[in-house]
Design a protein that fits this description.
- The structure is a single chain.
- The protein is of the alpha+beta class.
- It has one domain: Winged helix-like DNA-binding domain superfamily/Winged helix DNA-binding domain (Arc Repressor Mutant, subunit A, Orthogonal Bundle).
- The protein has a 3-stranded antiparallel beta sheet with strand order 1-3-2.
- The protein is globular.
């Protein structure tokens, strides 16, 4: 039964890539901030105390993995989590870590 239900290697690689992207503490902080609400590049930089260019660099990885989406409004780019699945991954992992603390 396990053998017939096991995910394919390509799917396993895709899942591993999501966790690889989330292995960076700055990106985890970005995901946390975005789980609380939509933010623009400048707001993320201020909240995380990093440069806007550093935010843009991190957002590239998150967008490539389809974890966040971007919406340009005038001079600002606003980011939000792509869907509730990303928020659940973050919240479940956070609860797991906090239980062990």
């Amino acid at each position: 039964m396990v053998l017939s239900s096991l995910i394919e290697r390509t799917t396993a690689a895709d899942v591993a890539n999501v966790f690889r992207v989330l292995s960076d503490p700055t990106r985890v902080c970005i995901i946390h901030a975005l789980s609380l609400g939509e933010l623009c590049n400048g707001d993320l930089a201020a909240v995380l105390a990093i440069s806007e260019s550093a935010v843009s660099h991190q957002m590239r990885e998150l967008r490539l993995m389809k974890l966040v989406t971007a919406d340009k409004r005038g001079r600002h780019v606003y980011y939000r989590l792509t869907d509730a699945h990303i928020q659940h991954i973050f919240q479940d992992t956070l609860r797991h870590v906090q239980e062990d603390a």
